[in-house]
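seq:
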Amino acid sequence: MGDVIAAVATGKVPCAIGILRLSGEGCAQIADKVFTPDCGKPLAELPPRRLFLGTLHDRLGRVIDQAMAVVCRAPRSYTGEDTVELQCHGSPAMLAAGLEALFTAGARQAGPGEFTKRAFLNGQLGLTQAEAVIDLIDAESADAAANAAGQLGGVLQKRIEPVYDRLTDLCSHFHAVLDYPDEDIEDFGLQELADTLKTSANELRALLSTYERGRQLKQGVKTVLLGRPNAGKSSLLNALAGYERVIVTDIAGTTRDTVEEPVRLGSVLLRLTDTAGIRDAGDKIEAMGVARSEAAAREAELSVFICDGSEPLNEEDFRAIRAAQSAPHRLAVINKSDRPQVVSAGELPFDTVLTLSARTGENLDALRRFVEETFGGEIRCDGSILTNARQFGALTRAEAALVHGQNALTGGMTPDAVLTDVEEAMEALGEVTGRTVREDITNRIFERFCVGK
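struct:
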């Protein structure tokens, strides 16, 4: 990590402020080649963590902006290295010219997540904190952002590290007694081993139990709208989204593919998917759309069957009903309540049936209440909720290893054999905290990040 990296740390669209970020030993000297402070002193000689006004030049030496610069010196910086940030006006063309000048001066392009990766490798962030950075950037709700911020503050790390430390103490005690029999060391007891395995497994199990709710908090509830053509699926999606997301016409079969839109109902984020009307397709393209509709239903957590309440149910409706039954949570909507109704709730095999009008908005609140009651409720968004699939997989392996150790101990296995399960659990926990994480896992984690973070 001896080289200096640089990147645009803000978006690629015009904005009020744009930031050029550098990190690495000698970054202030490189920044001095493109930025001239008005105070007359070079950045390398200015005090840290203070903003200084100056001019920014391109690689030809032309002035391209008035900007502010701030220097932070190792180890008191985000990355743990010397860093410089140049705060400019947010013209993408100007930022690109400034970045090109930094490359000419000796910096290189930062890779995705390389600033945060350096912070992790330099001990500024734990691995759960580093992964929380991208979750905070990608958060689609205030609750998701609050939970990611808590994880960035180390809340999740603090739930896992005591388990790791307890298992470390257990292993070190056993090996101390084994390796130094003549020393005055308290005997290693089977009850100590059993209690530690049980306590640690229970704590991991409690943490794992938060994942399903955490996944929904982060990603949203997969929801599919199903029905025959012209039942009002697209109209309902538009009504819930609050704008014309999908084309709506009187022509049956307007929607030929699945269309996804994130929609917030109360505190719940729905990953709402509009689908092609389910019927015997008239051509190959429509048949592909119908197949995708039925596949979306199999993958959904919530299916919403929609029918036209002003027309009798037909075989196409019943085919859509059968598709909707594959989801763990189901709801039926009798649409077009603004017209004379011929369909009753008793005709539909659903526990919950709502009558509404997607066109006028009548009774949409009932749908919002259903979603809130099914997937909402009080949830602690303080960082203690598990939201990351990679972390969930590693913690699942750790918990399974501890359970295997408990069973082995109960079955009469010797402590040294049981401790192989403890070491396996520690390795899995280390993949979450970063203590034993392999380089390939580290690289894969930070590949998810955007450049400049």
